[in-house]
Write a structure and sequence with these properties.
The chain has 144 residues and is of the alpha+beta class. The protein has a domain of 99 residues. An eight-stranded antiparallel β-sheet has the order 5-4-3-2-1-8-7-6. Strand 7 and strand 8 form a beta hairpin. It is globular, with a radius of gyration of 17 Å. The N terminus and C terminus are likely disordered.
Length: 144
């Protein structure tokens, strides 16, 4: 079974795409306050972005485009956009968002008032693959 788990992990690693895909999550404690962030990539042009901690936001289908490994959040500067409005209401801004294809992580730098917080979001499929070690996998479909 360990060989099967290793094969699954290898397949996940080799399937790494040319852009972020799936769910990314990370937490960080800053001055005793836990910041929790999640990005769920919906498509090659939109993701859901949620943060809890000193600010709370939950924005669905935020438009983005990739510029190399930089994630350009297309409408973050546009009034009426969920992310723009939530950040402005909290005197916050997204300073940068980048994707590391080698580690398949997303790093987001958010500035709230005078404090910048850098949080690394791990791709959740890799955590799930690690949980497979020693587990018996059941097929998703019945083969006859």
């Amino acid at each position: 079974m360990v060989k099967f788990a290793s094969l699954c992990a290898l397949l996940l690693l080799s399937a790494a795409s040319a852009a972020p895909a799936g769910t990314y999550h990370g937490t960080k404690s800053v001055l005793g306050v836990v910041v929790d962030a999640t990005i769920v990539v919906d498509s090659a042009t939109a993701f859901d972005f949620a943060i809890t901690g000193p600010i709370t936001l939950n924005c669905k289908a935020e438009a983005y485009k990739m510029d190399g490994n930089t994630i350009d959040i297309t409408n973050a500067g546009t009034a009426g956009d969920c992310l723009h409005d939530a950040l402005k209401a909290n005197d916050a801004s997204v300073k940068s968002a980048t994707w590391d294809p080698t580690k398949d992580t997303v790093t987001v730098v958010v500035k709230v008032a005078i404090i910048s917080v850098t949080i690394e979001l791990d791709h959740q499929a890799f955590k799930a693959a690690g949980a497979l070690r020693g587990a018996v996998a059941k097929p998703a479909v019945k083969l006859e």
